[in-house]
Amino acid sequence: MYLTAQRSNTIKTGNIIFILLAALSLSPVWIFPHFVTADGPCHLYNSMILNSWLHSKGGQFYSNFYHLNMQLVPNWFTHILLLLFIQIFNPVTAEKILISLCFLLFTFGFRYLVNSFEQKQAYLSYWSFLFFWQFAMLMGFYNYMFSIGAFFWIAGYWIRNFETLSLKQAIALSIGCTVIYFMHLFGLILAFSSIGMYTLLQFNKNKFRFWLKKCVELGCIVFPSILLTVNYIHISHKVPEEVEDIPFSALSYNIKHLTALNNISIHDRFFAALTAYVITALLILSVVSWLYRKYTTSETYMSFMLLVCCSLFYFTYHEGFLGGAFIEPRLQVLVYLLAVLCLASLGLSITLKRTSIAISLFIFAGIFIYRFGHYKRLSNFTSEMVSLDSFINPNSTVLPIHFMDSVKDDEGILAINQMLFSHISESITTKKPIIFLENYEANTYYFPLLWNEKLNPFKYLSIGDDGIETSPPSVALSTYNKDHHRIDYIVSWGKKETPLSDPSSLILNKEINSLYRLVYTTPTYHIHLYQLKH
Hints:
The structure is a single chain. Helices cover 59% and strands 7% of the residues. By secondary structure, the chain is an alpha/beta fold. The strands form three sheets. It has a five-stranded mixed beta sheet. The termini are far apart. The mean pLDDT is 88.
């Protein structure tokens, strides 16, 4: 009786600590006017275009440049959510709500999955706070992050209800898998792998009919999402893949130092490496202890099988897989997340448990403290970008040019990962109909909007495959203005003011000065707005 009450109090205390840490972790999103992610402004911008079509406001203007992607492909989920939120909240608040929901799905989902294991090592879920604010999230890969969070819930739900799954629960799982497809394939593959492995591990000769029934149930549950996945693979194979092999030495260094956590502060590197070393050490010590105890569960085998498969894929995949990008840093984090799941399946001794809690909280506090000031300065930079809105006329076209040699203020560089500024210009306006020519989403086949062929800037403005997105970009300003559509405004930032020693920067600046006039320069970050002269 006493032990039961003591365990109940421990669980309650753990839940309170987890909720408080979650609130603290989310606070930068809501304290500052803007929370900066690389692709976030682009997702919000495209959702606002969909909203304009929905309400017939500026629809004709946008229709000159875009058309709707009619394929049933992934990466639609966050656009649909943003479209719904925009009906109630202003766009900036809508994106903050989206980020908060993604965070809650991910962190509480990880805690749910860990508590689904026999060992119930809930304290290990503290690590999820560190793994959420990683490269993929700060790059604005919202669909991907939602899919990983959904994987946690699907896997945990299957483990908890495997023996007594009802028809309603099976339908709910099937809908869940289908929804994950419209998030991102990574999460769906993990969900398939986890529940499939867990089911195979339940094989028992004495209960063969029951096991076979579960296999049939699983097949029915995943069938709709498998059909959608096969269709997507068929679509993606029609598009040439840009294959890029990363040297083995670079892959080894990155995963050893967990560079995917090194994004904002110069201190991120220390805490990222510490996270990698601690989790690796805990896993080795736990495996040694497990070999002596020789007590295993299906969750243990499932977790280690996932970890081995993910690790092998990390060292053998190539960038551009199924049209993806930045796969390597995503896999880095997944390997360590799955390592923590292995720890949860094994259980830790009291000493290792206390060590894990202390170090995870120390790393969380360190990253939070050192990043907080950077979040504020990133928000200030975005506010200056938004201030350009009053100088831009409606129904205009805008070309963002990011030199990005360094984006800094009096305190130094704003963020280590300069890619955070890639699409920040698309946060300039949330009210006027404006075309941002750097809208990369419309140049892919897996987002809701597509460029109309004749005006596609990635084809006719960009010089080379990535010309419009390089720093500085390689673009044919005069040709596009003359033969396709006028570019009314140019927004530039992050360049060295004097001298511009880079030859491409000199050529680009000369062309800008001949075609455009400077309208406004922001006071702190020197963001320049140019308007077409004629």
